[in-house]
UniProtKB/TrEMBL annotation:
Keywords: Nucleotide-binding, Phosphoprotein, Transcription, Transcription regulation. InterPro entries: N-reg_PII, N-reg_PII-like_a/b, N-reg_PII/ATP_PRibTrfase_C, N-reg_PII_CS, N-reg_PII_urydylation_site. Homotrimer. The keyword Transmembrane does not apply. Belongs to the P(II) protein family. One of its GO terms (cellular component) is cytosol. The keyword Transcription regulation applies. This is Nitrogen regulatory protein P-II family. Coiled coil: none annotated. One of its GO terms (biological process) is regulation of nitrogen utilization.
Length: 112
């Protein structure tokens, strides 16, 4: 099993969720996060004073999938979240050793 973490622009969340649902991805965790990469920050004006916003709002999706679903899941996220502009985000894939469903005690792929 693999854990896919995707950092995307907030306005793309609904599109990505729907696209993943269409390919059979049933569960995910979503967090509102802030960060920056090459996009850096930007300046904003507040009550006449300009200030630097270093951390930009993003959404982080966490999805655990079976090994055979990884590439399809990644491709779906890329196709749906991509705008072609800087700040589209990143995808990280890591190994998952064990998953346990608390309610039933099911483990690994049965628990996902």
């Amino acid at each position: 099993m693999k854990k896919i973490e995707a950092i995307i622009k907030p306005f793309k969340l609904d599109d990505v969720r729907e696209a993943l649902s269409e390919i059979g991805i049933a569960g995910m965790t979503v967090s509102e996060v802030k960060g920056f990469g090459r996009q850096k920050g930007h300046t904003e004006l507040y009550r006449g004073a300009e200030y630097m916003v270093d951390f930009l709002p993003k959404v982080k999706l966490e999805i655990v999938v079976a090994d055979h679903q990884v590439e399809q899941c990644i491709d779906t996220i890329i196709e749906t979240a991509q705008t072609g502009k800087i700040g589209d985000g990143k995808i990280f894939v890591t190994n998952v050793e064990r998953v346990i469903r608390i309610r039933t005690g099911e483990e690994n792929e049965d628990a996902v």
